[in-house]
Amino acid sequence: KAVFYCNSRCQRASWPEHRKVCTFDLERKLEQKRGRDEGNERSIAIFELCGKLGCLYEQHDLFKDAEEMYLEALGIAVALQGEWSENVAILSANLGNIYVQQERMDDALRMYKRALRVCRRVHGDESGQVALNLCNVGICLRRKGDERAMAKYEEA
User: Which superkingdom (predicted)?
Assistant: First the structure.
């Protein structure tokens, strides 16, 4: 039986511990799920796998791969749960984080504003998630040289 590893740490780790963060294993599972029949259970499984892979790719600075996974998960979340779900807010903020790492401030600002709108609707204006997303918007505006940044920090 052939054994594949996602990296050298994977080779040294104990499988039960490493399995949760093994990109090779998760990619294999994702391809298996994509090959099956349509249905909500399949879509939910793909959503979860894409979210996990997106996080792992982001941790390994594989931003293009992370973006691809987050965008797929976001599309599934909108299709299954609608625009105003917490998962849409989380994935939008994750995409914003990736765009900041890539110095794509316009894209980051767009995603952070989306996350902010969804958080306000889902959690209300007094939520910690709203404050976090206001800070993210402020950081983007500041990095772009926009004077409105300080107002966002104060609002947060």
Answer: Eukaryota
146 and 99, same domain (yes or no): yes
Are 152 and 138 spatial neighbours (Cβ–Cβ below 8 Å)? yes
Are the CB atoms for 18 and 6 separated by under 8 Å? Answer: no
| Side chain identity at residue 117, one-letter code | R
Same domain, 67 and 97: no
What does each of the 156 residues of the chain score in pLDDT, given as a tens digit? 455 566 666 666 666 777 777 788 889 889 988 887 677 888 999 999 999 999 999 999 999 999 999 999 999 999 999 999 999 999 999 999 999 999 999 999 999 999 999 999 999 999 999 999 999 998 888 888 887 767 776 776
> In terms of Cα–Cα distance, which of 119, 54, 113 is closest to 86?
119
Domain count along the chain: 2
Q: By C-alpha distance, which of 106, 132, 136 is closest to 149?
A: 136
Count the Cβ atoms, other than its own, within 10 Å of residue 26.
Answer: 21
